[in-house]
Amino acid sequence: MQLVKPILFILLLSPFLMLIFGAFTATLGADPQKEIVHETGTWTLYLLMLTLTMTPLRRWTGMPIFLQVRRMIGLFSFFYLAMHMFSFIALYMGFEWLSIGEEIMERPYITLGMLAFILMLPLAITSNRCSMKRLGSRWHKLHRLVYIIAVLGVWHFYWQVKSDINKPIFFILLLSLLLGLRIYWANSTRTRTLNKQ
User: What does pTM read for this prediction?
Assistant: First the structure.
C-alpha cells in the first residue's frame, strides 16, 4: 500500500509530461496549441470523474485506500484545469486581457469553464488537513461544490465540441450515474434518520 501513492502520482503526472515531450519534439500534430488545450481539459474531466468515483468504490469495497488517494486525484484534476486555463490564456489569447474578458463574456462555454475554475480554486486551497480542522463541518459543505464544478465542466465540454460528441455523452452519463448514487445515498440516510426518531 505504501507504493500506491508514489505510483499513482507518476501515473497522474504522465499525461502532462507527455504533452511537454510532444511540445519539445514537435509531435503534437498540425495544431499543437489546440492539442495542449484539448488534452489538459479532457484530463481535467477524467480526473474529476475519477475523484467522484472514489467514494462509491470505498462504499462498495470497504477499502480505505480509495479515500486516501481521493485528495491527490482531486488536486491533479485542479492542476490540469489550471494548465487548461493557462494554455488558453497564453497560447490562444497571448495574454491579451481585454480580449480574454470579451471571450469570457461572449462565449458561454468559456464562461462556464471560468466559473468552474473559480469554484474549484477554494477546494484546492483547502484540500489539506489544517483546513479540514479549521473549517470543521463547513469543509464538507464547501467540498460538495465539486458536483456543481463537474456539471459545469461537462457542460463546458459539451458546448465547445463541434462534431464528435461521444466523449461529452460519456461524461454526461458517468456524471449522471455518480450524481444519482449521491442523491440515493443521501435520501437513504435521511430516511433511516427519520425512522429512528
Answer: 0.92
